[in-house]
């Protein structure tokens, strides 16, 4: 039986029931008009297909310039609520329920998860996973670091990054967070310290805090961790591990040059300290030097644990990450730790990832995401004021704030206007965090909503505000 949707009504006469006088001191007039429209849609006063007054008529009625109304209509159109038909008029396109909710610029989520390409990925993977369920192999225990087939798929994934690798040296983990925690449990004890950049991934800081491992901050510059300061820290603090995000570093977006990677490994080798190389963005970057795990040959002097997760370049819901173990290290200590933490990875999503890798769809999706991120970074560079640090295809950017603008008040104001942003405090390995925020560009469902979010943020940034009580943002 087929079904048809009821036609959307089209009112010939404009709906004026939502119009209210603008308030003095109520903020920018274009914003007040846009808020009136959005609020009316939310309250059901304006419905899909309702016609708005011509811009010139509304400007005269509200006593504002025509450009103010034009800007307000454009704001609502970018949010996906208006259909403009030129001389045919401007109409409400959809209910607010389809567009509501905070635009999250705080979480590093890949874009395009709601698009047709990703839907095709899911359909292709689910069909083959269903066959595995029927065969009875999917719902049993998988506790050995991954099946032979899945580790071979992982080696295919890693080959363009680190070259040809032995599948037997790969561990499959339920996400990079589990991998980090397992390595920390396997190779350190409570009270041990790990060297890391002074601004670093919050998941690593959280794992160290819960596992009672200390974090010693190492100075960084526009190429990442400074080798001379790492040498000092190794001499003075004796860290058991060095933790790095060398490509599109989280949060500062810096990428280490090949020379810097070699210098860092040389310092670690001199002091006999192992390295955790957390590298989620290498494939997205497209121009990064070879990983330290590659150029160092995973030597015994400074063994490198290389982590590649699919969460940042495909989808967080896959909960699949690959750990390339150093040639000199046994897999058993990390396997034991993984069993204690999670027992095993989620085989359904691991199988999905393996299917996508083998049929080439995973790498094709990465390229589409990379292209989308390139477009989003250009939008951000055009809209946002101030000093931005970003990679042309990065998932996030680092925005330094003027000293007169308090980041915690900014975050509160952004939240009040439906925007989520991340405070520098969440990334800081030391007490004093810089006055900056990290913005993630993948959380907006499309570029139009990203533009709306960035323009709102740019407007907030245009006015310095007084300090308020600090609020910690964990991402």
From TrEMBL:
Similarity-based family: In the C-terminal section; belongs to the class-I pyridoxal-phosphate-dependent aminotransferase family.
PANTHER family: HTH-TYPE TRANSCRIPTIONAL REGULATORY PROTEIN GABR
Xref: Gene3D superfamilies: Aspartate Aminotransferase, domain 1, Type I PLP-dependent aspartate aminotransferase-like (Major domain), Winged helix-like DNA-binding domain superfamily/Winged helix DNA-binding domain
Classification of source organism: Bacteria, Pseudomonadati, Pseudomonadota, Betaproteobacteria, Burkholderiales
Superkingdom classification of source: Bacteria
Molecular function terms from GO: DNA binding; DNA-binding transcription factor activity; pyridoxal phosphate binding
InterPro entries reported for this sequence: Aminotransferase_I/II_large, HTH_trans_reg/aminotransferase, PyrdxlP-dep_Trfase, PyrdxlP-dep_Trfase_major, PyrdxlP-dep_Trfase_small, Tscrpt_reg_HTH_GntR, WH-like_DNA-bd_sf, WH_DNA-bd_sf
Protein name per Swiss-Prot or TrEMBL: GntR family transcriptional regulator
Domain HTH gntR-type residue range list: 27-95
Presence of keyword Transport: no
Annotated keywords: DNA-binding, Pyridoxal phosphate, Transcription, Transcription regulation
Record keyword Transcription present: yes
């Amino acid at each position: 039986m087929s079904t048809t949707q009821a036609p959307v009504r089209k009112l010939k006469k404009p709906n004026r029931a939502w119009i209210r006088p603008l308030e003095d001191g109520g903020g920018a007039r274009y914003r007040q008009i846009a808020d009136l429209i959005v609020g009316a849609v939310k309250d059901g006063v304006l419905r899909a297909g309702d016609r708005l007054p011509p811009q010139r008529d509304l400007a005269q009625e509200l006593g504002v310039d025509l450009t103010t109304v034009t800007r307000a209509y454009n704001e609502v159109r970018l949010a996906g609520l208006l259909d403009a038909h030129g001389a045919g008029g401007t109409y409400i396109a959809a209910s607010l329920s389809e567009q509501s909710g905070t635009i999250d610029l705080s979480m590093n989520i890949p874009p395009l998860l709601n698009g047709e390409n990703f839907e095709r990925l899911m359909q292709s993977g689910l069909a083959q996973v269903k066959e595995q369920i029927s065969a009875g192999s999917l719902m049993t225990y998988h506790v050995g670091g991954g099946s032979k087939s899945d580790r071979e798929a992982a080696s295919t994934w890693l080959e363009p990054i680190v070259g040809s690798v032995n599948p037997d040296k790969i561990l499959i983990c339920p996400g990079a967070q589990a991998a980090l925690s397992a390595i920390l449990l396997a190779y350190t004890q409570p009270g041990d310290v790990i060297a890391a950049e002074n601004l670093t991934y919050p998941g690593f800081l959280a794992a160290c805090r819960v596992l009672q491992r200390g974090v010693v901050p190492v100075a960084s510059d526009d190429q990442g961790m400074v080798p001379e300061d790492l040498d000092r820290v190794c001499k003075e603090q004796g860290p058991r591990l060095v933790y790095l995000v060398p490509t599109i570093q989280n949060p500062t977006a810096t990428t280490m040059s090949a020379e810097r990677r070699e210098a860092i490994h040389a310092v670690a080798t001199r002091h006999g300290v192992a390295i955790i190389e957390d590298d989620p963005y290498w494939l997205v970057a497209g121009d990064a030097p070879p990983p330290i795990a590659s150029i160092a040959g995973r030597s015994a002097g400074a063994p490198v644990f290389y982590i590649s997760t699919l969460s940042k370049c495909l989808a967080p819901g896959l909960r699949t990450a690959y750990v390339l173990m150093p040639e000199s290290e046994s897999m058993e200590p990390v396997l034991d730790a993984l069993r204690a933490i999670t027992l095993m990875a989620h085989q359904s999503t691991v199988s999905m990832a393996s299917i996508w890798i083998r049929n080439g769809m995973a790498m094709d999706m990465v390229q589409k995401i990379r292209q989308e991120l390139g477009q989003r970074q250009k939008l951000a560079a055009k809209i946002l004021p101030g000093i931005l640090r970003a990679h042309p295809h990065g998932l996030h950017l680092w925005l330094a704030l003027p000293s007169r603008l308090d980041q915690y008040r900014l975050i509160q104001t952004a939240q009040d206007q439906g925007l989520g942003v991340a405070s520098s405090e969440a990334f800081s390995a030391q007490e004093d965090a810089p006055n900056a925020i990290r913005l993630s560009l993948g959380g907006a469902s499309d570029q139009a909503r990203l533009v709306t979010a960035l323009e709102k943020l740019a407007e907030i940034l245009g006015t310095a505000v007084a300090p308020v009580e600090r609020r910690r943002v964990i991402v």
